Each structure stands twice: as structure tokens, then as C-alpha cells.
């Protein structure tokens, strides 16, 4: 007497689902047998040819109504790890054990019991199982538990509707998502879906994820989601590397142009049909690699030499680097090739401050003047005179220019109305000034060891920040979104409370407008070897960062990190959130007086006229 266990496991449409109404039991039984033959033929084909079976085309429309999960052909015939293949292996082992039984009567009894179970409905099956479990001893129960543990595993990702599966995968981190893509073809298709990786990019790019603590750089337009086909190509099929192709004429000549110029706009429209879309996974992977390089200090160094004296200031974007020097010139460099594009002459003394945007460049000089340049043509548009001593810093927004000077004042220049207002209050040189357009405020740092917050509408001082014990060289207004996870230094609060009371009696006549969006924090550096983080609303110093052994001349910051340059000839990279030093870079032979930061690089300039750019992409 023979019994095919694997065939017995193929349920008819009504078996186990008595609530499903059927019209003709004989027709359904016949269709079930035909479907079983079809499935078995597919299984044999897989065993013989070692290829994955195709889904049956004659399957009923609602298989979850007519089949349980374990015997649903839509699910269990899609890969070699499915139930049908596992059942086949178990069936072969079971047949072998049955043949090894000594008594024929034992085989007959087992087969009779299984047939009775097979022909029973769902209610009777449960009663039979309950009775068997009551008769089992612990060894049998342990065996059942081990077997059931393997049998009840459900591939819910493949089974659920695609929208729900993608929603679940959206809660995974990057490493878990990549691991999930290795499970099977179906999981890979879902784990690589653009919607999942768009959510990942949205969570991490230009912000820190509160769950994993990682934030990815925004990067510039050359790594945008849409790229011209004629400007980029893929190095391999997986899309690991993208790089720009060389120009058609093969020349190294660089032409400065605005991204929004009419010529570039027309050209971009003509090329619009040749743009391709990059997968969000590729974009995430690219930025993840850059962030990993930042954290591990993997970079390539680019050297810029061309000034005859020390470098005083620098600014850069993804295309151009601007450097100002004691030699009274401004040099414009191509960041890709490292070549000098143009040198601007006009100042009669060192260039201490630089600001630029898409249309203009503004320079502050030790010759007491401010100049506005068209850096595309190299011509000087206008010159501003008014300071009585060296101009040490300059910043701008639209038609407003602010400048700081060694004459202890800050000036606000309104270009359209051709008016200038002087902000007085500092008692020593004003080394830096920064605008915050959203709140109509500017912030200044001085050799008098203080920082000041000014209202540029009323031209009055709103607040004074005290805490440094050395000349304050730089101030940067910041808007930190994740304040809850910001690490602060509790020990400093008691000191700054007394300083807050002292500042209340100062010459601060301005008040903060509750309707305006002020920066949440200020960042400053000083020749007392420290970097301080201040809370704007209270005026308190909430964190002091130690690490440099000599004065800190300059700092730069973005949403994730701080870069500082010091008289000790080193550059340090700090985590903005917790204030810890991530990396220390050495290599300069002279004190570092200026630094700048980008998404995938930072630059530093020293007193010997050497500028280095540290790149963390394309390594």
C-alpha cells in the first residue's frame, strides 16, 4: 500500500475552507487534480533542468480564498526556497523512513491515519490534532515544536501588497535594506525600488537622521538626480561611478559663466531631451560614500600656489575658488583642474574678506575700501569708502552690504538708496560680520572678546555675548533643527548666567521680535584656542570645544560639521551635534589663517600663500 505524502499535501479547493461556496464539487475536484498535475510537472522540470518555474497561467483569480498561504501556487512556486521544494525534500525523507519500517501493518496504519486526516474537514482536523497533542510526551512535543518552527515561517514581504511591503522596508536602515535585497529576486526588486530609496534620501540628505545618527551631504548640481547624457557616463552596469566627460575640443581652457545665464538656459533646453534619471539608490550610495570618507579621513589633496604673500581669505563653490592675499590681489581658480583662471588687481593692500554669489564678488581690503567686482569679466563695478581703518570682513544679501573694520565699527550699506549706517559699540577691532537676512540681523565678533547681535532695521544692538578670554576672530549664525540631541556643556551655564545679567546693563537698546525667525545658535572661534557654541535666545555659551593648542583664526560650518584652522598649523573637523573632533589634518608649514567648507571638500590657506583643498569624493 503506497501513499504519496507530497501529493496528499495538495489541498482541493474546498479542503480546509468550508465557508467557500462551490457550485460543482466534482468539477472542482477535477480542476484541483489537473492543477496538481500541472504543479508537479513544473516541480519535475525544475529538478531536471535546474531552472526556476514560471507561474501557472490557469490559476484562479482569488488564490488567497481558495488556498492557504502554504499551498498557494502564486507564492510557493516562485523560487527554489519555496514550500513546494521543501515539501518535496521532506516527502522523500518520509518515504525512505516508511520503507525502513519492519512491519507492513505499521505502514498500513500510518497511511490509513493520514488518509483519514486528508479526507476530513477543517473542524475534524483540529480535533484530531488536539487529541494527538494530548497523547504526546515531551520528546514528541519537542520534535513537533522544532518542525513547526520551520513550517510556519511566512514571507510576508512577498505576500503583502506591494505598497505595504514598501512601507515596511522604508523603516529599515541602509545596511538592513541592502541585506534584504540579497534574500531573493522578489525582495531585491522591492528593496531596490525607487520609492524606498527616495524615502532614505529624504531622511538623510542635508539633515541628520534621528534614528541612525547619519546625515548625508547635499552635494552640488553635477551630482543631481538628472544628468545630461552627453556629460556623464556609467563606468559599470551597477552604476557605481559617474564622471564627466572631457570637452569635445580637448582643451583645458576654462571659461567662467553663470549657471543662470541666457546662453546656458538655451543650451539646457536644447539638451533636455537627452537627460537621464539616476536611481535614488545610486544617489544615496554616492553621498553615503562621501560621508564615510569625511568620517574616516579618506581624501585627496589639491594644491593651489600663485600668491606672492600669505593668504588672508578664501571662498569656493563646486566650480571656482577665490583667494585673497597680502599681495593685494584676488585669484580665481578652477577647482577641477587647479589652474589659475584670472587675477583681479585694484586694491592697494591685502584682501581680508571675500563674498561672492552668482552675479558678483565683494572684497574687503586693508586699504580701507570695499570693492564690488564682476568676476566673470574681471572688471571692478564700484568702490565703497567710509571706514577709517582696514576693512576686515564683508557680507552681503541682495542690495545690502555689511562690513567690519579695525576702526571698531560695523557699517550697513544700502545699495539702492545709497545710504550707509554705522553700528557702534565694540571697543576694539571688529574682525568679522555676518548677515542673517530672515531676521534682519547681523552678528559681529571683535578683539574686545565679545560678540554682538544687531538689528539692521533700527541699527541698534540687541544682545552681547560674553565668554571668550581672547580676541574673537569669527562668528557664524546657525539654525540647528535637532536641538533635542544637541550636546551641551553643563559646567558653563553657571558662568554665563552672571554674564547675562552683566550684559543687561549694557548699551543694548534693541529687542528681539517674536515673529521673526532668528538663528538658534552662534558659533565663534577665538585666539584663546577654543570654539564656542552660543544659544541666541538666552545669550548663553552652551558648549566650549577644546583641541587646538594655539589660537583659532577661522572656522566654517555646515549642517553636519565644523572646520577650524589654527595657528598650530592644523585643521580640525568637528561634529556639530556633539562637539567632538572627528579628524585632524596636518600638512601646512605655516599658521592657517582661513578655511572654507563645502559638501564634499574643505579648503585651507596659510601665511606662506599656500592653499590646499581636501576632497572627499572621487577618491
TrEMBL record:
Compositionally biased intervals (Polar residues): 19-31
CDD domains: F-box_SpPof1-like, WD40
Coiled-coil regions listed in the entry: 84-111
Keyword Coiled coil: yes
Record has Repeat as a keyword: yes
Start-end of each WD repeat: 304-343, 344-383, 384-423, 423-464, 522-544, 545-584
Pfam families for the chain: F-box-like, WD40
Domain F-box span(s) in chain numbering: 154-200
Ranges for region Disordered: 14-41
Keywords per UniProt: Coiled coil, Repeat, Ubl conjugation pathway, WD repeat
Record's protein name: WGS project CCBQ000000000 data, contig 00058
Amino acid at each position: 500500500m503506497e501513499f504519496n505524502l507530497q501529493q496528499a499535501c495538495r489541498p482541493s479547493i474546498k479542503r480546509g475552507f468550508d465557508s467557500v461556496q462551490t457550485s460543482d464539487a466534482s468539477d472542482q475536484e477535477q480542476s484541483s487534480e489537473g492543477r496538481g498535475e500541472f504543479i508537479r510537472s513544473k516541480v519535475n522540470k525544475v529538478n531536471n533542468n535546474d531552472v526556476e518555474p514560471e507561474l501557472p497561467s490557469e490559476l484562479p483569480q482569488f488564490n488567497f480564498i481558495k488556498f492557504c498561504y502554504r499551498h498557494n501556487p502564486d507564492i510557493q512556486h516562485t523560487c527554489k526556497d519555496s514550500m513546494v521544494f521543501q515539501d518535496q525534500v521532506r516527502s522523500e525523507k518520509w518515504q525512505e523512513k516508511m520503507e525502513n519500517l519492519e512491519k507492513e501493518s505499521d505502514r498500513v496504519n500510518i497511511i490509513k491515519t493520514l488518509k483519514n486526516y486528508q479526507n476530513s474537514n477543517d473542524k475534524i482536523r483540529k480535533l484530531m490534532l488536539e487529541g494527538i497533542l494530548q497523547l504526546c510526551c515531551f520528546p514528541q512535543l519537542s520534535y513537533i515544536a522544532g518542525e513547526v518552527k520551520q513550517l510556519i515561517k511566512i514571507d510576508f514581504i512577498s505576500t503583502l501588497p506591494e505598497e505595504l511591503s514598501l512601507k515596511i522596508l522604508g523603516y529599515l536602515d541602509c545596511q538592513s535594506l541592502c541585506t534584504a535585497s540579497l534574500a531573493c529576486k522578489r525582495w531585491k526588486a522591492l528593496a531596490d525600488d525607487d520609492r524606498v530609496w527616495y524615502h532614505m534620501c529624504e531622511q538623510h540628505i542635508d539633515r541628520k537622521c534621528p534614528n541612525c545618527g547619519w546625515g548625508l551631504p547635499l552635494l552640488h548640481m553635477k551630482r543631481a538626480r538628472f544628468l545630461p547624457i552627453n556629460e556623464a557616463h556609467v563606468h559599470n552596469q551597477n552604476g557605481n561611478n559617474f564622471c564627466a566627460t572631457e570637452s569635445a575640443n580637448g582643451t583645458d581652457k576654462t571659461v567662467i559663466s553663470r549657471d543662470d545665464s541666457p546662453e546656458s538656459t538655451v543650451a539646457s533646453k536644447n539638451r533636455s531631451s537627452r537627460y537621464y534619471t539616476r536611481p535614488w539608490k545610486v544617489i544615496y550610495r554616492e553621498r553615503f560614500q562621501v560621508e564615510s570618507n569625511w568620517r574616516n579621513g579618506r581624501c585627496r589633496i589639491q594644491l593651489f600656489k600663485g600668491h606672492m604673500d600669505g593668504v588672508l581669505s578664501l571662498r569656493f563653490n563646486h566650480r571656482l575658488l577665490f583667494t585673497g592675499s597680502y599681495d593685494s590681489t584676488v585669484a580665481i581658480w578652477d577647482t577641477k583642474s587647479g589652474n589659475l583662471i584670472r587675477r583681479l588687481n585694484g586694491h592697494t593692500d591685502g584682501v581680508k574678506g571675500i563674498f561672492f554669489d552668482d552675479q558678483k564678488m565683494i572684497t574687503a581690503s586693508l586699504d580701507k575700501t570695499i570693492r564690488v567686482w564682476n568676476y566673470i569679466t574681471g572688471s571692478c563695478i564700484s568702490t565703497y569708502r567710509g571706514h577709517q581703518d582696514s576693512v576686515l570682513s564683508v557680507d552681503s544679501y541682495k542690495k545690502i552690504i555689511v562690513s567690519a573694520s579695525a576702526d571698531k565699527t560695523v557699517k550697513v550699506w544700502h545699495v539702492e538708496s545709497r545710504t550707509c549706517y554705522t553700528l557702534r559699540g565694540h571697543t576694539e577691532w571688529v574682525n568679522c560680520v555676518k548677515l542673517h537676512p530672515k531676521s534682519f540681523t547681523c552678528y559681529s565678533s571683535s578683539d574686545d572678546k565679545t560678540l554682538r547681535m544687531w538689528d539692521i532695521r533700527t541699527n541698534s544692538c540687541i544682545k552681547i555675548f560674553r565668554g571668550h578670554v581672547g580676541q574673537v576672530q569669527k562668528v557664524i549664525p546657525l539654525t540647528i533643527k535637532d536641538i533635542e540631541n544637541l550636546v551641551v556643556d553643563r559646567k558653563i551655564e553657571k558662568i554665563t548666567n552672571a554674564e547675562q545679567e552683566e550684559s543687561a546693563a549694557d548699551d543694548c537698546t534693541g529687542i528681539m521680535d517674536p515673529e521673526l525667525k532668528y538663528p538658534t545658535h552662534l558659533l565663534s572661534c577665538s585666539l584663546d584656542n577654543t570654539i564656542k557654541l552660543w544659544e541666541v535666545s538666552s545669550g548663553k555659551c552652551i558648549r566650549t570645544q577644546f583641541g587646538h593648542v594655539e589660537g583659532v583664526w577661522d572656522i566654517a560650518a555646515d549642517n553636519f560639521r565644523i572646520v577650524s584652522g589654527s595657528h598650530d598649523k592644523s585643521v580640525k573637523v568637528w561634529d556639530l551635534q556633539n562637539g567632538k573632533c572627528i579628524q585632524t589634518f596636518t600638512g601646512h608649514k605655516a599658521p592657517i589663517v582661513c578655511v572654507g567648507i563645502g559638501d564634499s571638500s574643505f579648503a585651507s590657506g596659510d601665511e606662506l600663500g599656500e592653499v590646499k583643498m581636501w576632497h572627499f569624493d572621487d577618491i
